[in-house]
Amino acid sequence: MKKSLILGAAALAAAAWAPLANAGEVKLGGYYMGRWQAYDANMTDETGANSTTGERYVHRIQLKTDMIASEKSHAHMVVRILDSANVEGADLGSATDGGAADAQVSVGTNLADPWEIRQAWLETEAWGLGVKFGEMPITLNDSILVGDDTSSNGGLLLSKTFGNVTAVVGNIRINEDTAAGGSSQEATGANSDDSNLWAGSLFGKVGLADYNLTLAYADLGKASDFMDVLETVCTSQNAATCAGTDSSNLWVALTLSGKLGYVNAVATGIYEDGYDLSQDTTGTKLKNLWEKSGMLGALRLSGSTGFGEWNSYGFISTQGFNNITNDNMVWSATWDQSGPGGQDLMNNFTNAAGVNTSPSENMSGIGLGLKVKAAGWTINPMIDYAAVSKNSATDTLDSAFGGSLLLSTQIQKDTTLLLEAAMVDPKGINNATTDNAYYAQAGIKMTF
Questions:
Q1: Which among 203, 269, 273, 393 has the fewest CB atoms less than 10 Å away?
Q2: Closest by alpha carbon to 302, among 207, 372, 369?
Q3: Is 65 or 362 the better-scoring residue by pLDDT?
Q4: Is the pLDDT at 368 greater than 90, yes or no?
Q5: What percent of the chain has pLDDT over 90?
């Protein structure tokens, strides 16, 4: 379920949505972004190999369509036409280097980056209830429990506001499949092997703090490929114990946000009960990481200075903690670099460290950044540190120190030039040989 539930108090109450256009109108917007980049995203010494080293041009086109029937009824769609596609080719008519599979611009069946509908959903109000249906973006608990990375969760959300409290309940259809993978059963939507996430959230204010309290329950049924939902790659642990396994899990999360003097603070705590696996996985790392309960705590702080803005973060999770999705928490550009061909260096470290592939699991981290404006430029330096909460015998990396520097300026209306660089220095264990990871790039983004 590498996808996203937009549970914000106002955003989720469909009745509170402000009109995007006049009734009966369709509004189209989006952006085009291209960049040159040079990078090495691997944390290990490749002894001459260059498989993870790159130098290229990449680009992306993303469109969003808002279809307005009335102030309270509207549908939305987000489409990626190109996503991290290499810019190449001497003949614009085919834009290939000789292979049909590399086609980027020409129309055909072998496009490397075909059109992709990332989100499509409807919002309305029925008898005082806000309704959202379809493949929609959702965020829960400061984007930590569930985060939105222009992916989506498919299902139904209902919301209702009572005074200063908004209640949201939802059924997210994680997977419609069958235990045997039979197409006839799948076509009829056999409910015995559906995988579902049931979630309830409250949004409101207590004292000086805004809160988001969430209870989520995953019932993974008997779907043979329910492992699509889990962050850890099953086949790397024990594939035989994964196929056909029944499982369920429970999460309780609380996020508080408010202003402490001149400082903005957002604190999140999450408890996860552990996956209830019906098959015996005794003695495997699979059992240790999935069946154990776990906790995560996170804190974001930000504020203003006489010369700009500052922000910081810190988080820690236990070895047994499992998140709902593997979306990252966007602590900084060192962790998550948006845009085409993005190199998520600190996220890559969490993968290389041998822990769960989600950066919120069995990890701790801390960081500090500034945002300063000077001579028409926005300058954003950031330093970051991450470490494995608890190492196991199979882990290869222990911790990493890194940072990023982003510079941007508007060169025309809604057109921005971006200069970006980052580096991460990992620390190896168990005789693991490490290598610095980095990227350097220049990009341009036009929104419309």
A1: 393
A2: 369
A3: 65
A4: yes
A5: 45
